UniProtKB/TrEMBL annotation:
Signal peptide: none
Recorded family membership: Belongs to the trans-sulfuration enzymes family.
Source organism per UniProt: Lentilactobacillus fungorum
Family matches, as InterPro entries: Cys/Met-Metab_PyrdxlP-dep_enz (IPR000277), Cys_met_metab_PP (IPR054542), PyrdxlP-dep_Trfase (IPR015424), PyrdxlP-dep_Trfase_major (IPR015421), PyrdxlP-dep_Trfase_small (IPR015422)
Stored Pfam families: Cys_Met_Meta_PP
Protein name as annotated: Cystathionine beta-lyase
Source species taxonomy: Bacteria, Bacillati, Bacillota, Bacilli, Lactobacillales
Basic and acidic residues bias locations: 1-15
The UniProt record lists the keyword Metal-binding: no
Gene name for this UniProt entry: metC
Lineage top rank: taxon: Bacteria
Cofactor(s) named in the record: pyridoxal 5'-phosphate
Keyword tags: Pyridoxal phosphate
Region (Disordered) location: 1-20
SUPFAM superfamilies to which the protein is assigned, alphabetical: PLP-dependent transferases
Length: 388
């Protein structure tokens, strides 16, 4: 069997064309011919299946080591389809710090459909255990939380969940299968916003799910086909292409992130850096045991008195935008941008201060990134001196 990096480039061939094309074609066909009315056809209608999507879904299943993959029109659609396998009255334990959009689907949508939820710190296994009820059906979390990169052990949660016959669902967006394969650590379902690292170029919104076991896969397939938020063939092709360069991109994200952290650690304007690669925390310990790298996202706090808005506004190369995981570096102020929906009190409870910055480190030359951060830090600290 090929090594992982080879699998990224070469998926399972569709053997569907006579032209010798090295890539699976983009099949823009909503419907497919039956050779006869009694024929059993592989494809009949695009929502149910499409060869371009099929290629991508097989590739995802191989990379995450599951039985079946699914491609959706967004990460949110993938999460919606996965959570829709549960029934009214089922209880789910969720991590306290999940993606805001996921929290919104849970709180404003699934609660109306009588799913019950308890939010806990999933790093604290005793707390997870204490939250288990007779009707608990799943535990849902992100291995690296957003924006503070708090790390949950997939192994520890899955081990506990198995004892109680509960499913473990992991949002693997921040790590990708290159850095962690949750199904190999005991999880049952993996979801991704493929908009981020899998696509990798900020040009497509997509989501994926992969199931470990066929019974669960059948339920997700039912939801994918019946709810219908499938990924278009063009977008499937873009994600397929993104995945082919995942290893080389992630290696550069990792080495750049490490250099940026080293730079920030030396700057007097920085009060605190959140990055699981920094030794001395439980987050670092878990990440070291269960991942092949600490990711490309860094959060940090500017010292009090330094104007965080001015700092991000003064950057020239690093772009001020939400989203993450693409080739270009993106920076944002969680309290004003990604986490603006939370009240001030909720933000502070989640550790989101006005000084907190989230940086998605791209694959540019690290010296240019550091020079940009440096010139903006110089400006804001100079301004602070003048004001004082
Ligand atoms: C972006 C994101 C999502 C939502 O995905 P969309 O593609 O934007 O719908 C879910 N989980 C995480 C961790 C994300 O970063």
């Amino acid at each position: 069997m090929s090594e992982f990096d080879t699998k990224l480039v070469h998926g399972k061939p569709e053997n569907d064309n006579q032209t010798g094309a090295v890539n699976v074609p983009i099949y823009n066909s909503s419907t497919y011919i039956y050779p006869s009315a009694d024929a059993k056809v592989k494809f009949d209608y695009e929502r149910s299946g499409n060869p371009t999507r099929n290629y991508l879904e097989n590739q995802l299943a191989i990379l995450e080591n599951g039985v079946q993959g699914f491609a959706f029109s967004s990460g949110s659609a993938a999460i919606h389809a996965v959570l829709s396998i549960f029934s009214p009255g089922d209880h789910l334990i969720i991590s306290k710090t999940i993606y805001g959009g996921t929290f919104r689907i849970i709180n404003d949508f699934f609660k109306r459909w009588q799913l019950e939820f308890t939010a806990v710190d999933t790093q604290d296994i005793a707390a997870v255990k204490a939250a288990i009820q007779p009707n608990t059906k799943a535990i849902y979390f992100e291995t690296f939380s957003n924006p503070l990169l708090h790390v949950t052990s997939v192994k520890a949660v899955a081990q506990l969940a198995k004892q109680f016959d509960i499913l473990t669902i992991v949002d693997n967006t921040f790590l990708t299968p290159y850095l962690q394969q949750p199904l190999n650590l005991g999880a049952d379902i993996v979801v991704h916003s493929a908009t981020k690292y899998l696509g990798g170029h900020s040009d497509v919104v997509a989501g994926v799910a992969v199931a470990k076991d066929q019974k669960i896969a059948d339920k997700i397939y039912f939801n994918q086909n019946s709810i219908g938020a499938t990924l278009s063939p063009e977008d499937c092709s873009l994600i397929r292409r993104g995945i082919q360069t995942l290893a080389v991109r992630m290696d550069r994200h990792l080495s750049n992130a490490k250099k940026v952290v080293q730079f920030l650690a030396k700057r007097p304007e920085i009060a605190r850096i959140y990055y699981p690669g920094i030794a001395g925390s439980r987050d670092h310990e878990i990440a070291s045991q269960e991942t092949n790298g600490y990711g490309g996202i860094i959060s940090f706090e500017l010292k009090p008195g330094i104007d965080s808005t001015e700092f991000v506004d003064n950057l020239h190369l690093i772009q001020l935008a939400v989203s993450l995981g693409a080739v270009e570096s993106l920076i944002e102020l969680p309290y004003k941008m990604t986490h603006a929906e939370l009240s001030r009190k909720e933000q502070l409870k989640a550790g989101i201060t006005h000084q907190l910055i989230r940086l998605s480190v791209g694959i540019e030359d690290p010296n240019d990134l550091i020079a940009d951060l440096s010139q903006s830090l110089n400006q804001v600290s100079e301004r602070q001196r003048v004001v004082n």
